[in-house]
Amino acid sequence: MRAVTFSADNHITLLHNGAAFFPALITAIDAAHTEIYLETYIFAADDTAMSVQQALARAARRGVAVRVITDWLGTGRLRSASLELEFHTSGIMYRAFNPWFQRGVARMHRKMCVVDRQVSFIGGLNIIDDMVSDDDLRLPLPAPRWDFAVSISGPLVASIHAELEAQWMRLGEMKLLARFQQFKRSRARVRGASHGPALAGLVLRDNLRNRRTIQRAYLQALGHARHSALLTSPYFAPGRKLRRGLEEAARRGVDVTLLLGVGHYRLQDAVSQSYYPKLMKAGVKIVEYSKTNLHAKVAVVDDNWATVGSSNFDGLSLLVNQEANVVIRDVDFSRALRRQIEVGIADGDAVAADAFDNQSWLARAWHGTAFFLYRMLMRIITIGNRE
Which of 24, 150, 185, 261 has its CA 20 to 30 A from that of 123? Predict the structure, then answer.
């Protein structure tokens, strides 16, 4: 289990929603001269995704080496097949992660891009329109999906590029010796200065080298928290260690607030709510957000630690899926992200401390059943990978 390796002197810009993210991404792609790596869970078939696809095609026509990875399940079987044909026609190299579950149940849930080894993007945004739900129904949303990414320039880009390059190699045809050599290279950290402004580090989760790195980063931040911790996630079903970290921070007097998305999946809401009573008893505040699809996986602790990425607070993100977050130690960035989270909290509905004190037996049974089903599912798909 690795600690976060920070590099200094990074320039990091917070991008709120697709309105900020997609123009920045397309501008970077249009300025590319040598290579582009893009990795996403969903690459949809809508106008927004088409604008990104067209920018990638323009880059390929200029002679830029363009490599795209999407998750086979997240993007969909038919869309993946369509992309393979369309990208090939455009001169774009393409690989799908885990088609037909050849690698087991794990998904590639990361959202990253590196252009010319100079600028990178990482966050929670898929390549999909902000105004359309990201499930199979693709229904219109009442407001833009609430999500974040960051653009990065500076030493950290080298780490992100190395990981995307390694992922591309892993998904190709590699002989056993080449895989072993690539594994050894991936064990070596890309080091940078450990002091100075805009400290940032890449934290990954996979089933081999970094099984608990993201969870550990959260636990360390909560363990050192002194004043406040704001954490946001659309899916909330934390394991024992993360629950304990939240509860212990609140008991020490830290103002711990969870901003959680609700209204997307009824069963998921019930699973999340089954955790509420014990957390609130420890002093954790919970706010439910239903204005639109909350998709952000972000946090700020004490205005000097922040993270943006793809990892939810549930078993799939923390124990199964491949995920990627960036951890940032910068006061100005942390305060900017805090302001955005506070807007989300203001738009949400705070859960009353006594909301679950007098639940009906039917409500208790529903939450208990949802929790039982979730735990059984996680026990099955995380065999050999428990926290």
Answer: 185
For residue 109, the tally of other CB atoms under 10 A from its CB is 27
Active-site position among 16, 161, 297, 367: 297
Higher pLDDT, 374 or 34: 34
What does pTM read for this prediction? 0.91
**332 flagged as catalytic:** no
Nearest residue to 215 via CA among 151, 295, 299: 299
In a domain, 162, yes or no: yes
Whether 281 sits among the annotated catalytic residues: the reply is: no
Of the candidates 16, 129, 206, 295, the residue annotated as catalytic is: 295
Asked whether residue 269 falls in the same domain as residue 165, the answer is: no
Q: Are residues 212 and 165 in the same domain?
A: no
Asked whether residue 26 falls in the same domain as residue 74, the answer is yes
One-letter amino acid of 378: M
Cα angle for residues 325, 138, 236 (degrees, 5° grid): 40
Report residue 167 as tokens.
Answer: 């992922």
Q: Which of 109, 161, 206, 330 is catalytic?
A: 109
Residue among 16, 71, 111, 206 flagged as catalytic: 111
Q: Where are the alpha helices (DSSP H) in the chain?
A: 17-30, 47-61, 72-75, 77-90, 156-170, 176-187, 213-224, 240-251, 266-273, 276-281, 315, 331-347, 361-381
Same domain, 206 and 85: no
Cβ–Cβ < 8 Å for 99, 72: yes
Same domain (yes/no): 21, 54: yes
Number of domains the chain contains:
2
Q: Is 295 a catalytic residue?
A: yes
Let me know whether 162 and 276 are in one domain: no
Report the CATH number at residue 82: 3.30.870.10
Same domain for 205 and 335, yes or no, is yes
**Boundaries of domain holding 205:** 201-381
Active site annotation includes 285: no
Q: Is 224 a catalytic residue?
A: no
If asked whether residues 35 and 112 sit together in one domain, one would say yes
- Confirm whether 255 is a catalytic residue: no
- pLDDT of 382 above 60: no
Query: pLDDT tens across 255-294, in order?
Result: 999 999 998 888 888 889 999 999 999 999 999 999 999 9
